[in-house]
Amino acid sequence: RMGNWNEDIYLEEERMKDFLEKREKGQLLIQRNRRLKENLLRPMQLSITEDGYLRCGYKVMLVNPDYPETEADLVLGGDLSLCMTLEEIKSPPSDQLEVPCGLSAAQTKIPVGRNTFIILSADRNAMGQVLRYGQNFCLATTGGFEDRTLYLSSDHRTLLRSSKRSWLQEVYLTDEASYLNCWQAAFLDPQFRLEYEGSPVPANAKIIL
């Protein structure tokens, strides 16, 4: 039987060998997290409209513009863009995104992988079609990855499931295509909402989802 001191040396050598092997293959946790964040923060190019209207297939950002708030010390001010919440990523076993993935708002208007969304028709086939008020559509994101598509989803609030901070209905990203992915754009002013039903949605317009 080997002495304790010799056994410790062998165990240390095995741990070092395992560490070097994982580092060479890029399997260390810090390496996986670095690749994940590089994809999420990868610069993206938003679509440029030629006729002033949004179309299916366009890459866009969802921004909540700054507005006066009575409880300004309790909320985040400025223009807030919808984005993936990095804190929701819990040491993944790979450099892929976990689903469902949480969402948050950030004070940035720079398009990157985590805050750029793609407009898709409900049947995913009408690429290039003008988006209209009252039309069902989906918002998808790749998160900076080439082979991953996550859909912006939401469901009714229940006693067991709701947003952590506001206690309203939860909004999240998932890779499952369902009716929970369907959204509609509504005209901002409720007095003219019915009149604008079926009209094209202008780019950079304030709307209600």
UniProtKB/TrEMBL annotation:
<dbReference type="Pfam" id="PF24569">
    <property type="entry name" value="CFAP161"/>
</dbReference>
<protein>
    <submittedName>
        <fullName>Uncharacterized protein C15orf26</fullName>
    </submittedName>
</protein>
<dbReference type="GO" id="GO:0031514">
    <property type="term" value="C:motile cilium"/>
</dbReference>
<dbReference type="InterPro" id="IPR055325">
    <property type="entry name" value="CF161"/>
</dbReference>
<dbReference type="GO" id="GO:0060271">
    <property type="term" value="P:cilium assembly"/>
</dbReference>
